[in-house]
Amino acid sequence: MTDASSDGLPRTLGALRVSGWVSRSVKNELRENLIKALERQALQRSSGQVEALFPGVMGYDDTVIPAIVNAVLAGHDMLFLGEKGQGKSRLMRMLGRFLDQWLPYVDMSTVGGSPIHEDPTRPITQRGRAFVAQHGDATPIAWWARADRYAERLAPGTKFADVIGEIDPARLMSGVSMSAEESIAFGLVPRLHRGIFAINELPDLDDLVQVGLFNILEERDVQVRGLPVRFDVDVLVLFSANPTTYNRSGKVIPQLKDRIGSTIQTHYPRQRDMGISIMEQEALTPASGGAKADGMDLGGAYPLIVPRFMKEIIEEMATVARVSKYVDHASGVSARFSISNYRTMLASARRRGVLLGERPSVPRISDLAHARASSTGKLELDLLSSHQLSEGQALDAIMAEAIKRVFGEYVTRHGLDEIAGVFAKGVRLEVGDMVPSAAYEKIVSRVPKVWDKALEANAATDPAVRASCVEFVLAGMWASDLISRAEKHGRVSFET
After folding, report:
1. pLDDT (tens digit, 9 = 90+) per residue, 271-289?
2. Buried-most residue among 34, 238, 266, 392 (CB within 10 A)?
3. Of 243, 265, 287, at which residue does a domain stop?
4. Mean pLDDT throughout 154-178?
5. Interior CA angle at 397 toward 392 and 400, to 5°?
6. Per-residue pLDDT at 177 exceeds 90
7. Are residues 277 and 258 in the same domain?
8. What would the pLDDT profile of 82-134 be if each residue is shown by its tens digit?
9. Residue-wise over 196-208: b if at least 16 C-beta within 10 A, else e?
């Protein structure tokens, strides 16, 4: 923000002093604002409406969030250690919520500007100190928005000049000394003076850059090419890493590890219900018309009803994948695996609703055939294992195990052998994502016990819900090795 007059914010150093503004380090600023948020929580507990410190972050109330709070109160730089899809980047970005809404800095736009947002009462560059000394209380003040005080960088390909800075040859040619501050083209960290800087995938960072960050954590200053050009940098530094690569010898220099104040260990949802809540929060547009413009809407001209067991199968697929012998456990399975598959399942059901005129549309097992498109690339196969499957085959095995687990929770074993016996006599049932829901009662008329088992999963009378339940029973029996399954041209047939 360059023109704060309409907001009543001081525009000169003299007015800033009169306003009572007090300079604070970025870590003290975060600490004090976090304490205020904790105080509000304490007052709100009696009403039962407690303001979340990290809105939208679920499953971390008793684990990760207390660790972050302690680290902020301790004034620590932090490492977020966890597998992919555990919200590390989101948590780092949300720490900016505890910065002041606006921060004053010396406005040097009249003399060509400055890459550093100088503290009006404690400038750190020679140029900034000279400017304030020259103008005194008339020093112009501009305001830095909270959202602009956070920046992050992905480690692969990041160079020393990107993060710390580099000597600018053009400035040397103009006569500036190499040992002068003016010779440096600053990188992200000094430009984030009085802000927050995050580096993702720390182990992939070049050793030279790690040394530069170590110097910032240790001495809180910047040195470029070993020259005696120094000034104190006030910045909170955050890192993220995968445990496997972070703990591998030689990937992160020991000195840098030692200077990171707190390690925040993230994790995947520990209960399926929590995973489903996260999946729906990220995949769906809020009913109130919130800001998730890219989310799926369950209402509209072609509304959707999602049976509970379909949600559970999608989330259970992620759970199964995380322990699967076909998947590289070191990589992990992101929550985006569930979110993408959930959206794809809903999209397939809505396509059926549009083409067949069904309202509401209800997702079925056959819609999961399209999950290959949204799953590909989200799993890293264990290429060193003795089980050499293609990604598609691994996904099929994961899906079958997820269906089997959820099916066992909904439908009793009693009566399944009788149904399998009917199939053994040569009965063949064909279903699919484009079969009208109204046709399912006729399809299973040859095996009426399937309909009875479908009612165990959900006693709804809506034809679309019943069709979904029928497919759930058939797929559950297939996953339990009671009947066989074949797929051709988008149609799935079940037989012995």
Report:
1. 999 999 999 999 998 865 5
2. 238
3. 265
4. 79
5. 125
6. no
7. no
8. 998 999 999 999 999 999 999 999 999 998 888 899 999 999 988 899 999 99
9. bbbbbbbbbbeee
Together in a domain, 261 and 276 = no
Q: Under 8 Å CB-to-CB from 246, ≥6 apart: which residues?
A: 79, 81, 202, 203, 252
Same domain, 296 and 406: yes
Longest dimension (CA), the chain: 98
pLDDT band at residue 391 using 50, 70 and 90 as cut-offs: confident
Total number of domains constituting the chain: 2
Residues 352 and 474 in one domain: yes
For the packed helices 463-479 and 308-323, what is the interaxial angle rounded to 10 degrees?
A: 30
Are residues 228 and 315 both part of a single domain? no
Residue after which a domain boundary falls, among 220, 240, 265: 265
Chain centroid to CA 206: 25
Residues 193 and 298 placed together within one structural domain of the fold: no
Contacts of 348 (CB under 8 A, 6+ apart): 363, 367, 370, 433
304 DSSP β-pair partners? 361
First to last CA, the chain: 70
Q: 130 and 182: one domain?
A: yes
Cβ-Cβ contacts under 8 Å for 229 (sequence gap 6 or more): 179, 180, 181, 183, 184, 222, 223
**Closest of 200, 209, 193 to residue 160, by C-alpha:** 209
Hey, what are 305's tokens?
A: 């009803």
Phi, psi of 141 (to 5 degrees): -120, 135
Query: 243 and 126 in one domain?
Result: yes
Strand, coil or helix: 165: strand
How is residue 299 written in tokens?
Answer: 């209402």
Are 465 and 476 within 8 A, CB to CB?
no
Distance CA 120, CA 129 (A): 9
